[in-house]
């Protein structure tokens, strides 16, 4: 009989010599990580258990950061193009030469025509710096990637309630009893959402996923609503109708904390129709139900009425709530009448509305915590509604997306479930009123800074970026009548507008980490042509392109000057309260990245390079009085820059003794202290200030102490957005600033101060019989940036992307395993592999985004699966809609914000024989990469 012998195993092997704590950058979570070092090499990455965001949890992306850091696709040195644009032929140069070239191009522009520089950044987390640089240069043409990513969500939330989904807030994971997610994929904020979902499931709370695709979070939801793409707003408004009809809304919340009681001019034809009645101090008036008089909304002791009528000088006014009820209590929104369009049964709509109401009002959350509101009224308890929502790009990336997001916020507010126990809670520096945000500025003076911040929130037509003749001042046409509230700019329109010379030609396109020649552009093939197109004079239509990236992406080959970025483990970064901090709903937090590894190549963090270029060009804000550079690099800037006295990029350990929280003089040891603390700073909100933040005096005072505001700024949520009505009035012919006639009808429909819904534009224009299907993309949990599919570990999870088709489509077209298909839109056709997926809206096909790669890019093998079976849906999407027959080409975007309508795509499908080479189409010719092709196999300890 053989005796079992336990092998002698080392159960605690030495993993590393040292642990260095920093912040992940494999997605937008900004999780804390422990980077295990062996000498000066990265050996292993794990989650930081002490970090407030992920509490030690780390996903596949975060763990695979080691492969990102050692990627063979890393750029090695500054480069200038020596071959034709697009060829990938470069010559390595020094940083001094690179800065000299950039300065020689840009300095003359600043002195003569600063608008001829278009500076746009991609997935950047230092927008307070990049926007400051562009403002001091003097160009009006600056924005980040939000215009094609999240502007609908951000703008709708901020105009409605002073904050939004995305990174502005979070559900109350510990108290919510019902949680609904709309259009949420797994790529963004994934670890906090996973942690939160685990708490909900552990406590038995109900999770409802509303998404055409049942993947990830929706797959573990208790109920999945496989909605038809582009109809979320209609579904939400139908639930709102059911709640109003049943009287299941929080009237006390609406009266206390929203503009529902504000009196609105309802006299047709009046130049102030739809605007609020105000007193001589400009304060909106409400109808006091005790005196029957119109009094200021904030008058002590006022008891506002939500219905009634008030007449002044023959002009009639009614409360905003009454107008809302009249708008939605109609048959158009009855469940039976929206069921076919939404793909959601009428009984399901009614039941979900009833469940929301039951949870909100019968499972009330009560916390024994006294608090005082901004009116001075004391409350003994904090009472909340345990219904929480979250939403993302799936509902915003439509031509009706802004109003859909607004509708969801209205649903939250009607249930009284925002900034209350159990509901949706904001993270500092949010919430704050839309009126406290900057307005967009576009005043150009050669040789001088721009007259103010580029981006912001227009309060009316007077804030548009148009000249006296109504022409666009910005190259992307943001803040024009085509998209008045484009708060994030419109990066996806820059190249096509610059190529067309509309509204004018530019000289230099300067971009950072924006893969516009591939997965970040609609109409990808045409954009590649635009970047290489030459005029009759033989010169490039876009004369100069400066680009910064860490890797040999598709966009690198189309650039003239390359400023090579570091990996995220080799750089300083500042995840700042001035930008998009890591705050929690219960604490003000920010964090840093720092060089846990020094670069072994001649590369510099983009922010440092930008600061050094600004110093060389002697830009204001980057130059000392004696003409010398003001900052040595980004670390110097982070430490010593002050946006306003006492407030800088980092909130923690300010003042020389480190005592300052939020406010304080610069501290030369600040970054070192962050490093010692694990890379983050956290300051808890006092208990009496944790909820009701917009109206809680304790929170307002705390926010002022911490530098979030300079004065208390309590405000009401905007059930009715008066700013939108001002644009509608202009479309109706009122006011001095008028839209062009061809846009009036569109504006009259789109600029509705109460949430509305319309059929997605592309869907309305194409033949529904010819293009009967919806086509979507979403990022997978294991990828985020297009960076991901160069990653040796992550490629094993997603080596290529098939087209997923519903069971109905699969059967209708007789598909079998291993089949391919032609997918066609009004713009183009692709040939791709197909896979059956039953957990999918019956009229929908979809695929993962940004996995397909162009041959030659990212140091991948020419026959890598990402370049063969992998593909982009972008080839089917156009930045312009199909012709209407009016002689104009209309933008394929939301008419309010300009958000790219990625998810309005309509297609048809037909079976195709599998190609012998398994090559998807189209397949552009291979690029030449400046870093060549990576090795077939790599192992730890080898040179990468």
Report on the structure:
The chain is an alpha/beta fold. The protein has 25 helices and 34 strands. The strands form 10 sheets. A 7-stranded mixed β-sheet has the order 5-4-25-24-23-6-7, covered by helices on one side. It has a 6-stranded mixed beta barrel with strand order 29-33-30-32-31-34. Strands 11-10-9-21 form a 4-stranded parallel β-sheet, sandwiched between helices. Strand 13 and strand 14 form a beta hairpin. Helix 8 packs across helix 12 (346-362), helix 8 runs parallel beside helix 14 (401-414) and helix 21 (722-731) runs antiparallel to helix 22. The model has no long low-confidence stretch (mean pLDDT 95).
**Apparent shape:** globular
Considering DSSP H and I runs of 4 or more, what fraction of the residues is helical? Answer: 10-25%
From the N-terminal CA to the C-terminal CA, the straight-line distance is: 50 Å
What's the tally of helices?
Answer: 25
Which structural class fits the helix and strand makeup? Answer: alpha/beta
- Across the major sheet, the strand order is 5-4-25-24-23-6-7
Residue stretches low in confidence (pLDDT < 50, at least 5 long) are none
Largest sheet: 7 strands, mixed
Cα Rg: 27 Å
User: Averaged pLDDT, please?
Assistant: 95
Topology, number of strands: 34
Sheet-strand content, in percent, reads: 15-25%
């Amino acid at each position: 009989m053989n005796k079992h012998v336990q092998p002698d195993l080392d159960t605690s092997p030495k993993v590393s010599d040292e642990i260095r704590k920093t912040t992940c950058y494999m997605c937008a979570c900004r999780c804390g990580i422990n980077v295990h070092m062996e000498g000066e090499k990265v050996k292993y990455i794990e989650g930081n258990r002490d970090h407030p965001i992920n509490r030690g949890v780390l996903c596949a992306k975060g763990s695979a950061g080691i492969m990102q850091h050692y990627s063979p696709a890393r750029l090695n040195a500054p480069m200038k193009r020596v071959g034709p644009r697009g060829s990938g032929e470069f010559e390595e140069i020094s940083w001094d030469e690179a800065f000299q070239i950039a300065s020689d191009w840009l300095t003359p522009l600043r002195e003569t025509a600063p608008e001829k520089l278009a500076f746009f950044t991609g997935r950047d987390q230092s927008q307070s710096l990049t926007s400051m640089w562009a403002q001091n240069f003097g160009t009006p043409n600056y924005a980040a990637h939000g215009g094609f990513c999240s502007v609908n969500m951000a703008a709708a939330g901020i105009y409605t309630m002073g904050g939004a989904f995305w990174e502005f807030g979070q559900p109350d994971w510990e108290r919510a009893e019902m949680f609904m997610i709309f259009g949420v994929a797994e790529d963004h904020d994934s670890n906090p959402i996973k942690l939160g979902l685990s708490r909900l499931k552990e406590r038995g709370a109900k999770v409802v996923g509303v998404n055409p695709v049942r993947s990830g979070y929706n797959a573990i939801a208790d109920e999945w609503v496989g909605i038809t793409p582009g109809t979320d707003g209609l579904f939400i408004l139908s639930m709102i109708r059911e709640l109003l009809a049943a009287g299941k809304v929080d009237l006390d919340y609406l009266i206390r904390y929203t503009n529902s009681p504000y009196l609105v001019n309802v006299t047709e034809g009046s130049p102030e129709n739809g605007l609020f009645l105000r007193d001589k101090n400009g304060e909106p008036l409400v109808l006091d139900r005790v005196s029957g008089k119109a009094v200021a909304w904030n008058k002590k002791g006022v008891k506002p009425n939500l219905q009634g009528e008030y007449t002044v000088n023959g002009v009639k006014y009614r409360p905003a709530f009454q107008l809302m009820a009249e708008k939605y209590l109609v048959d158009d929104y009855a469940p039976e009448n929206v069921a076919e369009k939404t793909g959601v049964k009428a009984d399901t709509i009614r039941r979900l509305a009833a469940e929301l109401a039951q949870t909100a009002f019968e499972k009330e959350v009560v916390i024994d915590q006294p608090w005082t509101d901004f009116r001075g009224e004391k409350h003994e308890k904090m009472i909340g509604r345990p219904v929480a929502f979250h939403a993302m790009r799936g509902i915003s990336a439509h031509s009706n997306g802004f109003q859909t997001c607004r509708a969801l916020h209205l649903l939250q507010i009607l249930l009284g479930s925002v900034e209350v126990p159990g509901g949706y809670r904001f993270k500092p520096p949010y919430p704050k009123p839309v009126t406290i945000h900057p307005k967009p500025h576009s005043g150009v003076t050669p040789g001088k800074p721009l007259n103010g911040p580029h981006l912001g929130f227009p309060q009316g037509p007077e804030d548009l970026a148009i000249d006296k003749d109504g022409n666009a001042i910005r190259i992307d046409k943001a803040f024009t009548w085509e998209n008045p509230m484009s708060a994030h700019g419109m990066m996806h329109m820059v190249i096509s507008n610059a190529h067309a010379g509309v509204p004018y030609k530019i000289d230099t396109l300067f971009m950072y980490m924006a893969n516009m020649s591939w997965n970040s552009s609609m109409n990808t093939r045409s954009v590649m042509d635009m970047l290489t197109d030459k005029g009759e004079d033989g010169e490039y239509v876009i004369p100069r392109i400066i680009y910064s990236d860490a890797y040999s992406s598709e966009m690198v080959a189309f650039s003239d000057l390359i400023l090579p970025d570091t990996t995220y483990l080799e750089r300083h970064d500042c995840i700042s309260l001035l930008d998009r901090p890591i705050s929690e709903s219960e604490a003000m937090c920010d964090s840093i990245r720092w060089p846990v590894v020094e670069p072994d190549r001649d590369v510099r963090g983009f922010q440092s390079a930008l600061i050094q270029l600004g110093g060389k060009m002697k830009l204001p804000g980057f130059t000392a009085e004696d003409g010398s550079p003001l900052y040595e690099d980004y670390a110097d800037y982070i430490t010593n820059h002050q946006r306003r006295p006492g407030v800088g990029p980092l909130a923690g350990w300010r003042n020389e003794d480190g005592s300052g929280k939020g406010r304080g003089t610069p501290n030369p040891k600040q970054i070192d202290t962050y490093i010692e603390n694990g890379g983050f700073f956290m300051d808890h909100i006092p208990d009496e200030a944790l909820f009701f933040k917009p109206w809680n005096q304790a929170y307002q005072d705390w926010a002022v102490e911490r530098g979030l505001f300079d004065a208390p700024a309590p405000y009401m949520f905007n059930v009715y957005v008066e700013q939108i009505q001002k644009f509608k009035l202009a479309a109706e012919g009122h006011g001095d600033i008028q839209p062009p006639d061809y846009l009036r009808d569109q504006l009259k429909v789109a600029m509705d101060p109460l949430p509305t819904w319309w059929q997605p534009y592309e869907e309305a224009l194409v033949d529904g019989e010819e293009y009967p299907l919806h086509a979507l993309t979403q990022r997978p949990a294991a990828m985020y940036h297009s960076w991901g599919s160069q990653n040796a570990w992550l490629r094993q999870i997603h080596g290529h992307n098939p087209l997923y088709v519903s069971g109905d489509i699969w059967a209708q077209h007789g598909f079998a395993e291993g089949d391919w298909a032609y997918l066609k839109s009004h713009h183009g056709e692709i040939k791709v592999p197909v896979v059956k997926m039953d957990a999918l809206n019956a009229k929908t096909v979809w695929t993962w985004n940004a996995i397909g790669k162009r041959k030659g890019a990212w140091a991948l093998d020419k026959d890598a699966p990402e370049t063969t079976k992998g593909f982009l849906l972008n080839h089917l999407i156009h930045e312009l809609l199909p012709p209407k027959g009016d002689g104009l080409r209309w933008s394929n975007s939301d008419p309010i914000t300009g958000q790219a309508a990625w998810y309005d795509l309509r297609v048809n499908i037909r079976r195709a024989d599998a190609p012998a080479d398994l090559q998807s189409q189209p397949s552009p010719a291979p690029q030449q990469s400046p870093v060549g092709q990576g090795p077939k196999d790599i192992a730890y300890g080898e040179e990468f």
